[in-house]
What does this fold into?
Amino acid sequence: MEIYDAVVIGAGQAGLSASYHLKRRGISHVVLDADAAPGGAWQHRWDSLTMHDVHGIAALPDSRPPGTPDGRANTVVPAYFGDYERTHDLPVLRPVRVDRVVEAGDLLVVRAGERSWTTRTVVNATGTWTQPHLPFYPGGADFGGEQLHTVSYPGPEHFRGRRVVVVGGGASAVQLLGEIAPVAAATLWVTRREPVWRTDEFNPDRGREAVALVEERVRRGLPPASVVSVTGLALREQEAAASLLGAYERHPMFTGIEPDGVRLPPSAGAGPGELWPADTILWATGFRPAIGHLAPLHLRSEHGGIRLDGTTAVTDPRVQLVGYGPSASTIGANRAGRVAARGVAAWLGEHGAEDVA
It folds into this structure.
């Protein structure tokens, strides 16, 4: 039975960064990726999302970022990741969908159906894309129109001539409204809370402050919040047309869903309890960390999150989490991969495993 020093679960930005740094340290490992091809979650994003929209991505360690600012993100980034895997000869196996990680004495066993890998440590880099958050609202099952989540967004042309409700107060809701409002018959933006708009310049200091606040949450074992919930929202140049159409006039959450639309609360300013007729409800309500396979290790705190020290799970230091909370960005994922490799090396050194750099 082969025993790895580490198994990395997920081959997105964080997983590839972790693999690169593990390899540099001479740590035996394998990367298990659920997708059939390189690219992580990027390969599943909608066709209208360009590299310009996402302002590019941070370069993986020892590489240059892709230099096609107007290309489709769902083709540019996967090609970049695939080239990176080949250039650095990273040990990626796919498709392997991990369903659970269990203890076996001092070791961990990573299982995917009938297949398994035995390891001393695990680096979890599964991100959030496979766990879209779809809230329950009364009447949702009776809605006669279409309900979509960001994860299955088909592009703006799909909504031409339709009345569309967009639910969510994050950056994706703002971006999707920017695409949909110019072609839709009407849009209605609803959020649970008033959106916080950023009026000052977003500079590196603000970015570090935001990440520090999210890091504090995971240190306390709270579920991680998105960085944008701390930084606030801003309209980009490509959202100007939607803004002129009034798409960013925010309304409070509807009180219920009916077959023909959504019922607005009396405070919405559109008449007491008025029905807003809708063809589509688009839930831009975010994602949750994809960590169900770690449940057998009982890592969650009493607050519902996993308490971390850097990237190390406090409850079980054999487990590193990257792309979780403050490292759920391309820049943060790179740094987290390096920190996780250092954490793996420290644990191996402390527990008498083979010498590592």
User: Anything to note?
Assistant: Residues 140-197+233-283 form a domain with the FAD/NAD(P)-binding domain fold (CATH 3.50.50.60). Helices lie at 13-24, 73-87, 171-180, 204-219, 228-231, 240-244, 330-350. The mean pLDDT is 88. The radius of gyration is 22 Å.
